[in-house]
Model the fold of this input.
Amino acid sequence: MRVSFKTFGCRLNQAETTRFCSDFLSAGWDVTSFGSLADVVVLHGCAVTHTAEQACLQLARGIKRTAALAGAPEPFVVLVGCVVEADTARQAVSGVDLLVARADKERLTEIVCARLVESLDRSDPTDPSNRPDRMPPPRRKRALLKVQDGCDFCCAYCIVPQTRGAPVSRPWRAVLDEAHELAQAGFAEIVVTGCNVGCYHDGARGLADLVAAMAALDEVQRIRLSSIEPSTSEREIIDLMVSCRKLCRYLHLPLQSGDAATLQRMGRRYTPEAYAATVQTAVARMPDLGLGTDLIAGFPGETVEAFARTQQFVAAMPFNNLHVFPYSERPGTPASTFSEPVPPTMRKARAQELIRLKEEQRRAFARKFIGRTVEVLIERVGRDGYGGGWSGEYLDCRVAGVSRADIRKIVTFSPTDADGAVLVN
Done:
């Protein structure tokens, strides 16, 4: 039996899809690329924005039709992820054979097999005796390691607490065991991810303790952290970054707005001043720190003056990576009922202004590394012999003198120039 996956949304969704892939492989399935012939197609949906949700549902409605037009057998279509929990997607979706709720997603393979096994002329693939112990092949160049799920911060614009539930951390030992397995499987970089990863805890041990324990594993070469919410464990992580060379010096702290009143309406847990103090502390200790953030443009009630304050704040911060989103109403969230909505065209225009600022900052940050030694995880090699990948500071790099044998390896090079924001030699 063949299964393929299509994942929408964040790194946490991607990490969960990797685990689904592993479970299906262990149950005796073949995993094929999305778009190729498959008996089962799993769509891992996202509901954080209206655009992501609709893209997933539109694809779900068209998979069987696409197969029919190609003369291929009709696949069994499964929908899982946040999109299943969103109110707008609770109604049956045309073309989907199975909706798997949040509470059941850890049993995805078992549930799919149970629906299909009666029609298969073979032994039950969910029988533990038929499940070899193996990790998925390293199709990704970086491993995504999920350490926790859920969030109860309940920001006014966010549907995640409804779709993923309260915070739950994975056991300490289970995370370290998986980190060891991923390193043994050939991954040179492990990305630690979760829904609100800064809230990880197992007893008295928090995220910084967990990352330090991962770094102590001999097989682990490099660790990257996904987004960390301000007011959680960012200060402890900064301390660890200073002393631990295995931990990438890249900190992604979602800002959302540089205007104090807008942050308050959003239900965020910090002020612009507190955020700036954290960044100043980090950069004072690590001058070449890569710094990323998330921004929402056009939140309800965001005036021209409030947006200007966000622009000024962002320009004053040493960001080298911005994720910018026009505000998207999510039914069921407090913000969806707020007065003074910003017109969609203005949201998009403000987002474009921030993106232009992002490009300027990213180019300036890249030029700081010309002539210095940079470590890069090679993720691809073109026919021209140049390799591409990301530095620990999350800078795109184009490296000469590498081969396909270097893919998934960390190499060092000395960039001689920056092509825009891409370091080259």
About this structure: The chain has twelve helices and 20 strands. The chain has three domains: 2-130, 143-366, 374-424.
